[in-house]
Structure formats: C-alpha cells, structure tokens
Amino acid sequence: MGLKILAIDTSTLVLGVAVVEEGKVLGEVTNNLYKTHSERLMPTVAGLLKDLSIKLQEITAISVTSGPGSYTGIRIGVTTAKTLAWTHDIPLYAESSLTVLAMNGKRFPGLVVPLLDARRNRVYTGVYRSNASGVNEVLGQQVLEITDLLEQCNRWKEPILFLGDDVSKFRSVIEETLGEEAHFGSPAENLPRASELGEMSLQRIMRGEEPLSQQFTLNYLQVTEAEANWLKKQKQGTGNDVN
Amino acid sequence: MSHKNSLVLGIETSCDETSVAVVKNGTKVLSNVISSQMDVHRRFGGVVPEVASRRHVERITVIIEQALAEANVTKDRLDAIAVTQGPGLVGALLIGVASAKALAYALNLPLVPVHHIAGHIYANHLVTPLEFPLIALVVSGGHTELIYMESHLHFVRLGQTRDDAAGEAFDKVARFMGLPYPGGPQIDRLSAQGKVIYDLPRAWLEPESLDFSFSGLKSSVMQLMQKAERKGETIGQADLSASFQAAVLDVLVEKAFRAVKQKGVKQLLLAGGVSANSGLRVRLMKRAEEEGITLRIPPLELCTDNAAMIAAAGTYLYYEGKFADLTLNANPGLSLIE
Ligand SMILES: [Zn+2]
C-alpha cells in the first residue's frame, strides 16, 4: 500500500479537500461557494473519505495550508487538521497557501505571482519560477502594496502570470504597469487545488522531511493590529509599563 | 438506559481561556486543564479577540492531550465530546468547535453542543448535585441573568441586564480608575479597605422587575471622578471602590432574593466569573442564612471559564441524546432559552 495524504485547504474562500497517493489523485473536492468553512469542512472530509472507502486511520499524513489568507479560514483548517492528526498519531505537514496557488502555473515559461487580497490596496504575495518538480520562490512571501509589487515585477522584463480570484480586483493596474508581460490565469487556474497541496507534502515525505510539531506557528504574515500598536508605543516609549 | 461511568470530554474556548476537561458521570472532575492567556492580554488592557484566537489554535491539542493524561483516561474510553457553542467571541469559539468536531469524527463519538451559561450553572453540580427547583444568579464579564430551573436542562430567564453586564461595569470602572487589568478583582480587593461614603445610584427599574442596568452607575462614577478632578480634590480609590461595589451588590443580592421569593424556591446558585467576588459571596451568604435559603457557590477554580462545567452540562445533554452533526457552527449570540 502506498502513502496516502489527506490535504485540507481553507486559507481563502475556496474550500479544498483531497486524498492523494504517489502518482495519483484518489479524490478531490473543490468548492468556491463562499459557504462558511466552519460548517462545510468536517462534513466534506468525512464525505470524501467515505466515498473513497478510506478510514482516517489509513491516512499516512495530513497536509494543511497554514496561510496566508483569511485568518478565520486558516484557523479552521489548521485546527481541524491538527486535531485529526493528533487523534490517530498521523504526521502533520503544512504548506503555504501562496505556493499551492503558484503550483497552478508550474508550466508557465516565466514568473508566477499568486496573489491574495490583504485589503487597503495590499496583497499577500510571493514570486515563483517553475522547476522540474514544481515551483520555487524568487521573492519571499510578504504583504505588499500592489504598486510596490508591480514596480518590482517591472524590473524583471519577462512574462508574468498572475494567479488567484482576487487578481481581478487589480487587473487594470497590473495591465497598465506591465503591458504585454502581464498574463492571467484561467478560472480553473485561479482556484488553489488541495491535490497540489497534498502532492507538495508527499514530496516532502519522500525527501525524508520531519513532520511538524502540534504547536507549529501559523503563517499570518501580519501581526495583529493590537500588537502592532503596542509595539509602536513601546518604541515611542509611551507604552504603559505593566507586567 | 443507565449511564454508569460515562466519560465526557469538554472543550471551552469562548474567550481567553483554552480549557479541556474530562468529567465522569456529570459530577466528578477527573481533569480540568485551563490555559489562561491573561498575561498575553494584560498589556493591551483587555482581551483582544484576534490575539485570543491565534493562541487557542496553538494550544488546543496540547491541552486536550494534557487533560486526558491528567485524567488517566485514553481516547477510546470517552463516551462523548462536549463543546461550548456560544455565546462568546466568534473567532475563539470556532477553534473549540472545529477541534471538537474533528475529535468526534475521528473517534466516532457523539458531539454535544453546550451553552456557555448552562456550563456556568452546572459548575455547581460538580460540587453538590443540583436540587430543583432553583434560581441561578449568573454574573460574569458578558452576562448578568437570573435563571429559573425546574429540572435538568430546563432554563427560564426571569431577568437580564439591559445594558452592561456586571463584570463589564467592574472592568470599565477599574480602567477609568487606572487600575491594572483585569479590574474586577482589583476593585474587590480595594473595597475591603475602603468605606461606602459616595452616594451612587442603584437601578431598581420597574417595581418587581428582575432586570438589571449598570451603565448609569458606571457613568455616575466617571462623573464623580471628573468633578473631583476639576475641583482639585482627590478621591480615595478604596472608598470609591467600596461605594461602587456596594451599589452593584445591593442590586444583585436584592433581585436574586426577589426571584427566590417570586418562585418560592429553596435553592439559590451563584455562577459566572463574578462569583469570585468576595464581597458578593459574603453578602449572599449572610442574606441566605437570614432567609433560610440554601446557597451554592462554586469554588474559585470553577467560577471562571473552564471546560469541566461544559462537560458537566454536556453529560446531561448526552443522556438526553441532544447531539449535533458535523455541520455544527459556533454561535456567538446563542440563546439559553429555546
Ligand atoms: Zn463565562
């Protein structure tokens, strides 16, 4: 029997669940219905495993996206994945939601830029280039003003593929800045795929990477507003010194 | 159906405490692990919901594991998973609910959603079994309610706050006085050293009403302080605390016993975080003795948010077959009364 990976992604509005094994996607559910992940995730996992006649105990590893994206979404996915993994001592792996999305552009001969709206004209993003087994980061994941991102993109002078449903919000400014170098994903390519997520963790296992501890840190890419304000006050020396 | 040796695991994440407990037969606490985030939130002067949610995710399975280990119970011996469904902070509740659903699915166990206030009331059941009919005075940072119970799980609300919860008024006044977070215990501590010398209003509302209102009292305290500041007078923190606390307690105690009389019950329960207030405990004990009423107050560790109380209430819901399916969602505005 081969390795079986259960993949869970709720970092964005898309809910994705898949079971993959080496060289094969056994099953996958993707929906983009904006329904609450809290209500839908667990029944979707249960339903897919039932359809595939696979018991949770037969799963070799669980893979989850740990952000960036919707804070609530990330937490529902990670909490569910962590608890399922903990209950049956299943190794747990996490991947970036941006890298999972970038995988949809792995055949693109240029740069791939997955992008999630971070509000106030900012985006969660990273820049990737395809390689033999997937994609690798050219520019690390960060929160950027869309104009700053496009300024960087302009310097590369090569075709760039933008991926994600949120890209449509910025399409006109992207086209204005990059002209013919700008390319856009098809509707299917704009949805992160849980099967790609599972595949990425499968590769990790084959490389012999250790699973995560139950207390691994989520990738919010931003501190909370309260923490940011507190840090600012500390720097200005006006923070109240309670301990 | 006999329920010998039922083992229920409870999960509570409605605010800033990550708590998991194992309770036997709805009455015996085998473990009650409470991971408080107080130190994390103190520097912000109050609970920051986003910070609380982030913390819950990091701790949840570690706390589950600890609760089972302390109870010396293995996962396969559990009979049901109980979880706080609401009310509370939605982002915080969601962590408990997601984790409980995953556990219930993975272990093939019934999933039992519990109302947070039902939990607070059942905290008393972990000390001495509830005797019906009874009145429960529920006072916390989010609630001030008088509940009538004729039997297990049947809640009738007789009164509630029309504005601030009692605990909320304590915290707001404390913050205004410049006391460190959390303010309630600070006011209670200072009250013991002060005298009731400031004349503050008591909101009795309509005759016979069992509702509460604390926002007028809160404003009066603030006006008193601002007036003194303008005149260059100093107001002693201890005396102000004592005067404020007396104003809150007068109303809480009077209305609780008014409810006891209206319903002709013999048992009064105190529940919720403000149950830890020593002034309130003393006043209620004295009055209960005068009136010949049995008063039940949970020990301090069961007053604040904890999962043992959720598991206790959850056990009775489990006995009645009140299960949820895997679509269960957190409900920050969940009502206790059906
Ligand atoms: Zn509470």
CATH topology of the largest domain in chain A: Nucleotidyltransferase, domain 5
Secondary-structure content class of chain A: alpha/beta
Profile the largest sheet of chain B: 5 strands, mixed
Largest sheet of chain A: 5 strands, mixed
Radius of gyration of chain A: 19 Å
Describe this structure in words.
The complex is a heterodimer of chains A (243) and B (338). Chain A is of the alpha/beta class. Chain A folds into two domains: 4-97 and 192-233, Nucleotidyltransferase, domain 5; 98-184, ATPase, nucleotide binding domain (Nucleotidyltransferase, domain 5, 2-Layer Sandwich). Chain A is 34% helix and 26% strand. Chain A is built from seven helices and ten strands. In chain A, the strands form two sheets. Chain A has a five-stranded mixed β-sheet, with helices on both faces. The longest helix of chain A is centred in the N-terminal third of the chain and has 17 residues, at 71-87. Chain B has 338 residues and is an alpha/beta fold. Chain B has two domains: 7-122 and 303-319, Nucleotidyltransferase, domain 5 (2-Layer Sandwich), CATH 3.30.420.40; 129-297, ATPase, nucleotide binding domain (Nucleotidyltransferase, domain 5), CATH 3.30.420.40. In chain B, 44% of the residues lie in helices and 18% in strands. Chain B is built from eleven helices and ten strands. Chain B is globular and about 65 Å long. The model of chain B has no long low-confidence stretch (mean pLDDT 94). At the A-B interface, helix 1, helix 2 and helix 7 of A face helix 2 and helix 3 of B. Zinc ion binds at residues 116, 120, 140, 272-273, 305 of chain B.
